[in-house]
Amino acid sequence: MEAFAIYLKNRLALTDEQATQATSCLQTKRFKKGSILLSPGDTKSDSYFINKGLLRYYSIDEKGKEHIIQFAIEDWMLTDRDSFIFNEQSNFYIEAIEDTEVVIVKKDFFASIKNIVPEILELNILMLHNSIRFMQKRIDMLLSATAETRYLQFLKLYPNLSSRVPQWMIASYLGITPESLSRVRKDLVKRK
Amino acid sequence: MEAFAIYLKNRLALTDEQATQATSCLQTKRFKKGSILLSPGDTKSDSYFINKGLLRYYSIDEKGKEHIIQFAIEDWMLTDRDSFIFNEQSNFYIEAIEDTEVVIVKKDFFASIKNIVPEILELNILMLHNSIRFMQKRIDMLLSATAETRYLQFLKLYPNLSSRVPQWMIASYLGITPESLSRVRKDLVKRK
DNA sequence: CGAGCGCTTGATTGAGTTCAAAAATCGTGG
DNA sequence: CCACGATTTTTGAACTCAATCAAGCGCTCG
Question: I need a labelling partner for A168 at 20 to 30 A (CA). Which of A61, B1, B163, B176 fits?
């Protein structure tokens, strides 16, 4: 709660009271490593702000393979749009990679906070544009780059993440097999 | 202009006067097939609403290969975020695939229309979420699916587009070579 | 301390690429 | 409206990057 209030304060021009007022009705929740917060078919009206820990947003295909759409770390929000925005059944999983504490942001939070802090709408828009820009770069990378290039870009983009996430999940985020990633890394070390 | 006013009217609860008022200051522009509306390095404050025609949003990699991030057809907006939202240099190209007429939406349009129709902010948020949801599905597909599956999904998603776009551009959108797409199509016909 | 999980390594396979060239289609000017 | 050049699509053959299958190692955590 604390962290989320600070987050809002930093991004909007809020007084302390406004920040506490806005976040007072929110609840935090802890999940142990490995917990599933959302599964395909669910329709929850929760969005998560991460106080501490690390979540993954992923799918499982017909062959049982996992594909990671997104990681989410401290100070990020993770939202399943199918569920949260469009009230449809989700297609994805959300899982805690570490023991994680989240702020549960319900659907009506945005409805009520915009009365207190109307600027939140524009902040929201800006952040959504930023997400899109980010995802477009990822799509560009998936369309064009080799396994090695993808991995190097990943390291540059998330320098801190690689130590917190098992290697096979990085592979799954990059769209390659764990074996291939292992070989890519071996090559990089050898050539260095 | 016409089309854009209708577009807004349908999505927001606007009177005719409001719709005309909001769009009166906007300009339309025509581009011939093959025109480049934006190049990497540009920083334009234009966003495009497409009255008629078809645009592509793409990159060119070090080997000179093109990678299509997005197509945009009638009634869609195409925005380069680097440029339009963040005032940075663009990384992508925008090109007219057909002779195309667009409404030029300048940056300040949103600033001024929100005074007339505040609901536009929430509409905007909803559409951005929808874009993200869409792109997440595309990323999932790029991470998991074979050339054939991607192509079939593309046909399902854009049934009308495949006739308006040359095959090599579809291949470029799917992340495969034109040769591969040709073979995929051959196989599909044979198996049918 | 042992079972399971994650990472590595090797051998083989396979989907898609590359390069090359022919066939089909498009479009533009005469 | 036709013809010719350019672009697009198809086809073929060789090749390559990454996937698959399989086995072994090392760590950790129960």
Answer: B176
pLDDT (average), residues A116-136? 94
Any idea of the CA torsion for A121, A125, A127, A129, to the nearest 10 degrees?
A: 180
Four-point Cα dihedral A33, A39, A42, A46, nearest 10:
40
Going along chain B from its start, the domains and CATH numbers come out as 2-117 (2.60.120.10)
Q: Which residue has the tokens 């799917």?
A: B174
Contact between residue A56 and residue A97 where contact means Cβ atoms under 8 Å apart: yes
Which chain B residue has the Cα nearest residue A133? B81
**Cβ-based contacts of B137 with chain A (< 8 Å):** 91
How many contacts, defined by CB atoms under 8 Å, are there between A and B? Answer: 99
Give A 72-131 residues with CB within 8 A of chain B. 81-82, 85-86, 91-92, 121-122, 124-126, 128-131
pTM more than 0.90 = yes
3-state class (DSSP) for residue B151: helix
Tokens of A121: 């709408």
Contacts of A179 (CB under 8 A, 6+ apart): none
**Which residue shows structure tokens 């949801």?**
B133
Work out the burial of residue A115: count CB atoms within 10 Å of its CB; fewer than 13 is exposed, 13-18 middle, 19 or more buried: exposed
- How confident is the model over B56-75, as pLDDT tens digits? 999 999 999 999 999 999 99
Closest among A167, A165, A190 to A180, alpha carbons compared: A167
